[in-house]
Structures
1.
Amino acid sequence: MPQTIPQSSSALAVELEGDALWYQPGDVIIGRVVRRCSTECSRAILTVSLHGRAKSKLSEGDTQYRGRYTLIVGLRNKQQLFNGPIHITEGSGSYESWPFTLTLPTHADSRCLPVSVKENEKFSFVPFNDVPLPASFAGTSSSQNKEGFIEYYIRAEMQLHAQGTATAVKHVRIERYNPGPPVQMRMNLSNTFHTVQGDSLVPGYSRDQLTTSQRFKKMFSSASVPKFALTLQTWFPMTLQMDQSSHVPIKLRVVPKWDKTSEILQNVLQTCRLKTLDIEIQTLVTIRCDGTSNPHDAEWKWCTKLQGSRQLLQSDTPVEIPFGRDSEPLDVGEVLNLQMKTTKDRREGMTFNVQQLYPEFTTYNIRTKHRLKGTVEIKVADKVITAEINRDIKVFPPADPTCGPPVPAIDQNARVASSTWIQPPPPYEEPPSFEGLHAMDQHGSESHRRVEKVESISSAVLPDGTGAPGLQ
């Protein structure tokens, strides 16, 4: 089930204005079809069409199950650009080009749904009416027996009388914005209880000062070893949004448990330092394929490590963790500049068929969800305690910078008047009316560990749901 192979040659090529890398649903794609090889033909017919599809495949032994959905129907989004004789002389950089504009729909075309879905909606993750056009996607399991992709492309064909047909295929990447302003981040607090034991917890302790008799007593008598009890508080996000300029927050604080601490350590301020912060986002992909009477579902996952995650070295500046309930938690995500991958990384910096970080979405036969997983290690004196993070999170698409309807996603540097490109004039708009307007104001030794409490500390909690609005 391969993706559509791009095609481009001197015989025919599709070029996009400004070499645009991505678009939004509803955008106008401006481009041209170019033929650069010498040609003399009495009649040529040139067409250009827009296509979109979502496909899934599950292999079980010799049996394969597939899910096929047409998102944009090529025949309904087809234009004839030229019909007539063509003559291109050899050399001197001669060529012919034909401009075109294609408008991306905002929703998938439900008129070409498989018969199985029309008869029973259980073959689709979502009701098949009014499904928003999903973003481009590609993913394959490590065992290569499960895969799914969502692709969009422009296909140009030139039929040359008695000379055959030339074809060009240009992929178009689709991104979706989350409606409205940036999502307010939700944070959760996890408390993990730990105890550590050792004479090094006692202020001024030095093993070199002990006599041989005292060392043997320490070796065979654990009752006299001081014990320090503490709660490691970890705040971590439950919602993240692509392309947010801020870091990923992870906040830490150590709170002593004096009632479970040895008397010699009562009210002793302990030095607590960050040793390791290893955080990743797991992407869980679920695909659905057709079956005889029931659909076949399969899932797999891949991990994207947050940039800045690492084990601190001795050469690094120590990161001290606040001690005490009254101390302000430290945002170690800010200290280490913890960042997640952005849509720009996916558009420009990586091959599109590798495992990447995508926002959460659900369409007919493909669904993604996410988990935040990681390990936090804190060094208390010379002892190490560990806390783990393993919670579902929601990864939202970037915020809509216009906070309104989508606009054409075209490189700003390419917005230069050129006779090569033909752009439709802007629609006429009536001047705004100011009648009836009123003045407005602006206005978070591993001998004992247990999770004690998980609570939300966000001042503005988002409503729970299955996904971001408009991201079916």
2.
Amino acid sequence: MAVADLSEIVKAYDVRGVVPDQWDEALAELFGAAFVRVTDASAIVVGHDMRPSSPGLSRAFGRGAAGQGADVTEIGLCSTDQLYFASGQLDLPGAMFTASHNPAQYNGIKMCREGAKPVGQESGLAEVRALVEEWRVSGPPAREPDVAEGTLVQRDVLTDYAQHLRTLVDLTGIRQLKVVVDAGNGMGGHTVPTVFEGLPLQLDPMYFELDGTFPNHEANPLDPKNIVDLQRRVRETGADIGLAFDGDADRCFVVDENGDPVAPSAITALVAARELAKSPGSTVIHNLITSWSVPEVVRESGGTPVRTRVGHSFIKAEMARTGAIFGGEHSAHYYFRDFWNADTGMLAALHVLAALGEQQGTLSELVAEYDRYAASGEINSTVEDQPGRAAAVKAAFQDRDGVEIDELDGLTVTAADWWFNLRASNTEPLLRLNVEARDAATVDAVRDEVLGIVRA
């Protein structure tokens, strides 16, 4: 069997690694068996993306689950948020086979409990890993004598998924919009045509052919080089808006009519204002790297902002704890109470399209009120001694007047006119820096001072 140490592929929130070098269908079958044992599930739902290895891995996981007595509903090709929809609608634990935006040779599993509740290291993933490690030697245990082998059945939920999203945002009365969508040969090419069908949207599709080898560009819109084609098409065609989805289509990035990227924080603030208009006084979650504009807009809209760590498991836990209506992250993950607290870039995109189409102005004009500050974007530095460099930065700032420091997630330093966050990567020898300020000159000054210490 493939990898010797499962710690190489079992991450904080999911399983992810190179196929077949690090994991294969034999391991996937054990993961399916272990998932059923840990969740005590009598039935599960399984889906997969368009990577060449995904159908085989998904089916092997289903075999392992069925071998432990669970009935398996296979929904086949789907986006990650479509799998979350199935988990929520069917009230079943679920597994999605995808490596999101990673290169073609990678694959992975995102797992959830019934109702799309997350499975991470502290909520079942560590137990799954322990069982897989044990069973690689002994094999999975036999079913109890009174438990029959589970069934595997196929079910298409794409239409139901699209209909559910469209009950949450009404676009029927908006003006006609010209929309360029870059699916990056990922699952957006599967979901967008059905979700957009019949709406007043003139769709200009780019790279909708499902191809897990990513022949045009990586399906990672967070990297500026991967949205260049989209920006060019929007400018050339005079489109109203451009949308880019990542490989498993759970994240959506937006560019305006000029082809300029719209910050995910601005999208978070816009969607928060719309959700609060429907549910006044509600709570909105934002991670600590989102812009100052997010809590400002939430308060202005009559809501309560709650700041949390980076990462979907923390966001979803806080949403459940607080009853929040919406949550957003700087990485373009958007979470909705009406979507089982799960993240769906498609629903966020529908909100932006509705907001744009309900008025006559351009997208750049619309988002200007939500994009209030200058920002550095995320800057990575390769650093062997991450704790030591972070401690040096803390020492340099902690005694300054008017400066507050907190360590909710990495090091956050806040002054009257600026803030920065410095976080270590969980998987690489990197420190990640984000800076925001009231003007670009201050961003540059703070950035240069911090990087001077980090890279010394």
3.
Amino acid sequence: MTDKKQLKARIRARMAKTGESYTTARRHLVGAQDGPAVDGGWRLNGGRHPDSAAITNILRNGGAEVSEPLVFVAGGGLGAGYILWEFKHDDSRHVTLGFRNQWQYPQRWLEKTLTRLGVKHDAHTTGGAKAASQRLTAELDAGRACVIMPDRYQIGYWNAPASLDGYGGHPVIAYRRDETGVFLDDRNLAPLRVPQEKVDAARARVGSYKNMLVVPYPGELTLPEAVRDGLRDCAEHLSLPSDSFSLPAWRKWSRTILDGKAAKGWPKVFADGRGLAGAMLSTWEGIEPVGQDGGNLRDLFADGLDEAAAILGFPLGELATEFRRIHGLWHGLAEAALPDSEYGRLRELTAEIRESLIAEGAASPDASRELWELRAAADKAVVDLDRFADLSERLANIFEAETAAIARLRSVITA
């Protein structure tokens, strides 16, 4: 038991220090993990990004041999998006970053990706809580795993504060139920059970995807065609001029950080230095794989490019190398935003929550409580704004690198 606790502490420390995912940090310390845990016949394979992991794990449990990087590529690969939220109810600031194709439309991405892969599926939505609960029960009792979209506060296992009620969540798999509740696959490697009533409340909380339920029927995949179409989708989407949902979003963010006149300019939003710690923590969480959403995903895409090259015969190796370099640029931005020397404890607590959920099926409530108490205190503190120029320059470099890489991708797949 002592050895296990020591290993957990070492994994958490590495996650906090490097921003790595649980799986990567554990592999560096003790090597590859043994085969997946099995719960009621369901294999808990883990995963890197909630959306692509949800599809991959349903397909793999259905007998399909497919990797998460290829599913991610088939879904259109990378995206780009940035929003700075200001919340008056708790005087907080939060940065939302979109790194997946169509990041703002989770259900649309799920259905597009399944269709592209040749996977038949049913999608259901209903305003009625009773009907939604009955449908989920019927599907699980029939042995069919489902993708749902629970609100993170309402679902409970993240131990999020009440101030985040209704702020949304990400896709997870409901794969079985019993009289005690519903068992979920959120890339966890140990069983995660949630009472039925909490699942129902969490599914019904967010209006834009209220009671969403997608039921895939795994079968033979149209993988080469899906990967080819996904690469084209990625190249076309990220070549658009939109500064909200394509690569120019990074350029806009870079400029906004230094713009003292714009309504969302950082010198104006953070004029008194307060609220910046929360914005920086959400930036770090969004960019690094240690967070809830899988990070900036440029490394996942690079792995997908390597696998796509073997399937399609396209010369994608150099592009894969470049996107791994770009992943490093994002890591540098995250480190600059939330330095370990200043915010080490916030990073440690974030890593502890993620590690405990993956390894034990339950996020640490003590870590969650301390994290949000420290974050609230940090948000009230005056923070030096001299890091803005560095962040802006890093973002400008990322924008240039990704723009050049996507132009190269377009030339490769249209040659």
